[in-house]
Amino acid sequence: MPETTLLDFDEPATYSDAIASSSSSGLSSDEETSVIKKEHVKAYTQRKLSTTPSATTFEGIPTRKDHEEFLRNSIEIILKHAVFEGCDKRNKVLNFQHPKDLEKIFDLKLRSSPGTHEELLKLLKDTIHHSVKPGNPWFANQLFCGLDPYGLVGQWLTDALNPSVYTYEVAPAITLIEEEVLKEMRKFVGWSKGDGVFCPGGSMSNGYALNIARHFHCPDIKKKGVSAYPRLVSFVSDDAHYSTKKFSAFQGMGADNVYAVKTDERGKMIVSDLVENIERALKEGAKPFLVVATAGTTVLGAFDPINEIADVCQKYNLWLHVDGAWGGGVLMSRKHRAKMAGVERFSGQRMSLSHLCLSL
Ligand SMILES: Cc1ncc(COP(=O)(O)O)c(C=O)c1O
């Protein structure tokens, strides 16, 4: 048998076993839980990694014999270094190295023969050590920070199950979870009806919105292509995120056909300039189809006046998309949700008349 110092962690088989084994102590159940927690913490900190190299195996199905120890060690490394130390403000946000030096630290060469679990665990530790820790309180960024422990477990779960969410049959529980969360999110917006989809990021959400708005105005564009229509023009403030232009290019409408609307000194879209731009496009013989308002612009965090913009969209029959990638979360705040006043007005019976797509 190979020598190992790993499995000196005397773990109870189940949580109930743990409770049962400590029940003779005469402590209350809360006290017992706290004793068990302390014992686990002690065992965790004393635990050492195996010194014996074990080869990686490339199988579609993990086995306890080959992979359990590796998986447990990986999780412990992530918990210790990425989660708890990574979120501790006594540690650095980043141990910066010049790319040339960092290249020397990592052995990143792809090889034709398998390595060992120990090599992978070292790579895991090194990767964490040389990564930015957005969960560290010193990481100050307007767009992302923190580490949500429950979100992390959700992420691990979806990776462990690795389902596709395209049909109920292939992902029953997760489909219902998705529906429920979307329903609650619609309530935050103030919509009694509607649909939703989780998108991989703000840019993609804006891309979907462009496509939905275009489909609404040009339902057979999928078959006929853009050349069957006049030049399609959309409008965003000149402080808006560049993704609307990027996706206008991707979808064959052209970045130049996203007209930039002026902003005021606080970075909000000037509605009179929006009207001027729409009139200009109409005079040019183009087809205006979409306005993208921003709830929290990337640099200044400005909220465009959604109500006034929605009035213009109704007058000119334009789809309204609100990019809430940065500031859409204010809908969950009693104090700040007024900044997005107007999002709720496209609900119920008026849904077919009006067109609002919101990305959060
Ligand atoms: C207002 C706004 N919209 C869209 C995006 C794009 O989001 P992502 O980077 O998730 O694609 C950003 C990102 O900075 C943003 O600030």
Task: Briefly characterize the structure.
By secondary structure, this protein is of the alpha/beta class. Helices cover 42% and strands 8% of the residues.
How would you describe this structure to a colleague?
Belongs to the group II decarboxylase family. It holds the Pfam family Pyridoxal_deC. This is Glutamate decarboxylase. InterPro entries: PyrdxlP-dep_de-COase, PyrdxlP-dep_Trfase, PyrdxlP-dep_Trfase_major. The chain is an alpha/beta fold and 360 residues long. It has two domains: 15-129, Aspartate Aminotransferase, domain 1 (Alpha-Beta Complex), CATH 3.90.1150.170; 199-359, Type I PLP-dependent aspartate aminotransferase-like (Major domain) (Aspartate Aminotransferase, domain 2), CATH 3.40.640. Helices cover 42% and strands 8% of the residues. The protein has helices spanning 15-21, 29-46, 64-85, 99-105, 117-129, 149-161, 172-189, 202-217, 221-224, 243-250, 271-283, 306-316, and strands at residues 232-237, 258-261, 287-294, 319-323, 356-359. Strands 2-1-3-4-5 form a five-stranded parallel sheet, with helices on both faces. The longest helix is centred in the first third of the chain and has 22 residues, at 64-85. It starts with 14 loop residues before the first helix and ends with a strand. Pyridoxal-5'-phosphate is lined by residues 143, 201-203, 241, 243, 294, 296-298, 323, 325-326.
Q: Helices and strands, in N-to-C order? A: HHHHHHHHHEHEHEHEE
Q: Indicate the CATH class of the largest domain.
A: Alpha Beta
What is the CATH architecture assignment of the largest domain?
Answer: 3-Layer(aba) Sandwich
Q: Report, as a whole number of angstroms, the end-to-end distance.
A: 55 Å
Fourth-level CATH superfamily of the largest domain? Type I PLP-dependent aspartate aminotransferase-like (Major domain)
**Major β-sheet profile:** 5 strands, parallel
User: What average pLDDT do the residues reach?
Assistant: 84
- Rg (CA only): 27 Å
What name is given to the CATH topology of the largest domain?
Aspartate Aminotransferase, domain 2
Main sheet: strand order: 2-1-3-4-5
The DSSP helix count reads 12
Protein name: Glutamate decarboxylase
Organism: Acanthoscelides obtectus (Bean weevil)
Pfam family, one: Pyridoxal_deC
InterPro entries: PyrdxlP-dep_de-COase (IPR002129), PyrdxlP-dep_Trfase (IPR015424), PyrdxlP-dep_Trfase_major (IPR015421)
